[in-house]
Design goal:
Layout (H helix, E strand, L loop, with lengths): L9 E4 L9 E6 L3 E7 L4 E5 L24 E9 L7 H8 L4 H10 L2 E11 L2 E2 L5 H11 L6 E3 L6 H10 L4 E6 L9 E9 L2 E13 L2 E10 L5 E7 L6 H14 L17 E2 L5 E6 L1 E2 L5 E2 L2 E6 L3 H4 L3 H4 L1
Parallel strand pairs: 1-10, 6-8
Antiparallel strand pairs: 2-9, 3-4, 3-5, 5-6, 6-7, 9-10, 11-12, 11-14, 11-15, 12-13, 15-18, 16-17
Length: 317
């Protein structure tokens, strides 16, 4: 493929919706950020960390069925539903697969939808220097919505949309400046995110057991000085009994004699310490003054680079 994958434009965090009619709001989908690349002869998918996901989502590889472009780079979010609501846990069942046979089976059991919200490249030319408004107009011309491919909807009233997201317990809202160009490998205030619940990637530094099965995870993040700090423990969320069984086996393999945390967890009795390589996505209400999570809930076991993804930088923005 002639098109090289790029790191997408990222929003910064905000506590309030921006004011003014130069902004639009979009639903923040709880899924996997994926860019679709097609150079005219081959289609590939990559996530925001430049990890290829072509194998995992074969239903998106025939891009001519939903897009009239000869060559294209699209930016969007792949989502899966659980009881009519987007579920990160469900989409990770697809994203974590590595065997073609299992992918084929999962494609029928866990259908996905690609929510397209931007275009970076079109018929041989980069369009990242066009305004968001112009890029959206282009998407309207070239994308043909399907059951599993949709254009993200724009809303003018961000505050009302955020209140609706709270009511339906969705992830949040993204605010975008209509005149913003697309900043490859960048992050600035022209795109902003407001979350109903905060979330982060964390790595497991210890576990507790109940009846020979792991029932709680002690979680940590890296600081800018590469210190590994404890941020709380979690034992509730969306993990299945099979997930907890797999964690039990992994914990046995990763066991170490001493705590990997720089600071000492509040609870330190009856803990099995492990190498911090198992990673999870966690939702939480807020951080306390002691920098531990209030009401943490494990959303999924994920495959991310713990030193790059499981950092305090997530909390800053």
């Amino acid at each position: 493929m002639n098109l090289k994958p790029i790191s997408p434009f990222e929003p910064i965090s905000t506590a309030l919706p921006p004011e003014g009619d130069e902004w639009i709001a979009q639903i923040k989908w709880d899924g996997v950020r994926v860019l679709l690349y097609d150079d005219g002869s081959e289609t590939k998918l990559y996530n925001r960390r430049l990890n290829e996901r072509t194998l995992q989502y074969p239903e998106l590889l025939s891009h001519k069925t939903f897009c009239t472009a000869d060559s294209i780079i699209l930016d969007g979010e792949i989502i899966a539903f659980d009881h009519h609501k987007p579920s990160f846990h469900e989409v990770m069942k697809r994203d974590s697969l590595r065997q073609p046979g299992r992918v084929k089976q999962a494609a029928s059991l866990i259908p996905i939808t690609y929510m397209i919200f931007d275009v970076l490249y079109y018929n041989g030319d980069w369009v990242t220097d066009r305004t968001l408004q112009q890029r959206h107009a282009l998407l309207e011309q070239i994308v043909i919505p399907q059951t599993n491919v949709q254009l993200a909807q724009n809303f003018e009233d961000g505050q009302t949309l955020f209140e609706q997201m709270k009511q339906y317990q969705m992830e949040g809202v993204i605010y975008k400046e209509l005149q913003s160009t697309y900043r490859i490998n960048g992050k600035d205030g022209r795109w902003r995110k407001q979350k109903v619940m905060k979330d982060l990637y964390a790595a497991v530094g210890g576990v507790t057991f109940r009846d020979k099965t792991v029932n709680s995870l002690l979680l940590g993040l890296y600081t800018n000085d590469h210190e590994w700090i404890y941020i709380g423990n979690a034992g509730t969320g969306k993990l299945t009994q099979n997930d907890w069984s797999n964690l039990t086996e992994l914990a046995k393999l990763m066991q170490v004699d001493e705590s990997p945390f720089t600071n000492e967890p509040v609870r330190s009795k009856d803990i099995i310490w492990v190498k911090p390589v198992i990673t999870v996505k966690v939702e939480y209400l807020e951080l306390t003054a002691n920098r531990t999570m209030r009401h943490p809930s494990i959303q999924a076991i994920v495959s991310v680079d713990n030193t790059l993804e499981c950092t305090l930088e997530q909390i800053k923005g």
